[in-house]
Amino acid sequence: MQKKVKITILFSTFVYIFFAFSVYAQVQNADVTLSLNPKYPKANQNVTASISTFSTDLNKSKIAWKLNGQISIEAVGKKTFSFTTASTGLQTVLEVEIQTSDGSFITKRIIITPSDIDMLWEAPDSYVPPFYKGKALNSPEGTIKIVALTDTTNSAGLTYNWKLDGTNKQDSSGYKKNYYIFKNSFLDKNNEVEVTTSNLSGKNTGQGKILITPVNPKIVFYQKDLMFGTKYEKAITDNFNINPNGEVFVVEPYFFSPKNLNSSDLEFNWSLGGSQINTPSPKNELGIAPEKGQTGQSKIKVSINNLKKMFLTAEKEIQVSF
User: Fold this and answer.
1) Taking the model in full, what pTM does it have?
2) CA 45, CA 87: separation in Å to the nearest integer?
3) 2-112, CATH topology level
4) How far, in Å, CA of 232 to CA of 223, rounded?
């Protein structure tokens, strides 16, 4: 009887030791996730760090948060911590030390080197008239170029990873590829372009996003002075009075593609008083003169189409008096 009891006690002790070891082994450094919001902080930006795990109850754990080696806060169940990043190019070392209720010790560490990324875009083949002070906007099915400008000193040694509407663009990504070119679809109301940068060691250093929204092209009528040229300072509207000696009208197709108006891809169709007339040369200039002694009103209409882009089209009509 005594022998049997001793065996039972020894067995129970073995089970307890094994169980304690199993619990301790479950909580490993890799089991705890340290995340940042935003994921890629910029310089002097407020950031919230958080930890999570399924291996232990963090609400019962003693948690200490450190910035650059100094404890900022220490409390039981302190799963989040807010701080401000350093200036551009300066490191912020964030550490979190966790002591679980079963005695496990876990340390997570992350080094943040802020890198602001400015996303600049252009529509390189979008037409605007001479002396136009605004930006050439992109129209449906237009070409767009995005350039990522970083403020880090080693920007030349970065790898750029591009995404278009959430889809990785591997062919456009790579070492020193700080620009991305694409053509939007006429079905897209807008396009989100995202880039993340990483250094040679593979560590992510920054992120940038930009939303590109295409605009419909538009046609604007102007008067052309034979001596001073096109009067871009004032657009022509309805009820324009034609000089008895005649007028030359210039139409400017803002944001059309291609930007070369002489391209065979662009078709100009003119009509006067409801009747189609021959396309003038240049295609965007029309000269008319009323018959001597004649008065009245008429309508001038022009439509412009890109023959290779089904949905790149616009038309404009004005009423004139003579």
Assistant:
1) 0.71
2) 9
3) Immunoglobulin-like (2.60.40)
4) 8
